[in-house]
Amino acid sequence: MDDVFKALADPTRRRILDELADRDSQSLFEICARLTTKHGLGLSRQGISQHLAVLEAAGLVRTRRQGRYKFHDLNTEPLERILNRWLRPDVPESAQ
Amino acid sequence: MDDVFKALADPTRRRILDELADRDSQSLFEICARLTTKHGLGLSRQGISQHLAVLEAAGLVRTRRQGRYKFHDLNTEPLERILNRWLRPDVPESAQ
DNA sequence: TCGATAGGAAAGCGCTGACTTGCCTATGAT
DNA sequence: ATCATAGGCAAGTCAGCGCTTTCCTATCGA
Hints:
- Two copies of one chain form a homodimer.
- In chain A, helix 1 (2-8) runs antiparallel to helix 4, helix 2 packs across helix 3 and helix 3 (28-39) crosses helix 4 (45-57).
- Chain A has a single domain (2-82), classed as Winged helix-like DNA-binding domain superfamily/Winged helix DNA-binding domain (Arc Repressor Mutant, subunit A), CATH 1.10.10.10.
- The first copy, chain A, is of the alpha+beta class.
- Chain A contains five helices and two strands; from the N terminus they run ααααββα.
- The first copy, chain A, has helices at 2-8, 11-22, 28-39, 45-57, 77-86, and strands at 61-66, 69-74.
- The two termini of chain A are 15 Å apart.
- Chain A binds chain B through residues 2, 5-6, 8-9, 11, 14, 17-18, 21, 74, 76, 79-80, 82-83, 85-88, 90-92, 94-95, and chain B through 2, 5-6, 8-9, 11, 14, 17-18, 21, 74, 76, 79-80, 82-83, 85-88, 90-92, 94-95.
- The first copy, chain A, binds a DNA duplex through residues 6, 9-10, 12, 27-29, 43-47, 49-51, 53, 67-70.
């Protein structure tokens, strides 16, 4: 739970989540390419790799290996848990 | 929006939000006292003051002065905005 | 008016975190 | 078998953040 907030604290990581929300099952290189072209982020491959590791540790990103590729998928479950902490439970159960 | 995530990144600030969610309209000294007694946080008054400033800048805490007192209230509106960024809009409007 | 109380400003320190660079492993194509 | 590709590991650098300390301002009670 602590890791989720830390993971969300970085703007680059939020961009990555945006990117995965837009298109699931991207590899590291795909994400690199899209971040640089679409958002103009000039970041090394290793930098993004580390960000993905943080997101995965926080449970915000799920990964699966396939050959020499590793695909990343967004997992919004931890986000839904955050909101129950301070938002009154008038948030309906369907949102959890 | 950027400030909201940064503000939420620190565990002490989340404790403060918890405290304000539990009881509204607390002064700085009240918050200090409650954090130390209830949560065992050994933090200086100035430390908490700075945390409150960060929370206020992020819009998560609203303040109003009354004489020499400054009361703090929780404002969950920025949290509700986070919902829409990655969670699908199947979250009903009533939760926003 | 004087002192106590509530809060703010600014400087300084230590530590964490983001990012790069260089090297290493594993899978796939030729 | 060999080389390119996809990805990981580790060390090192640098800026930002949390926290303390010290000093300063403003409001209230005696």
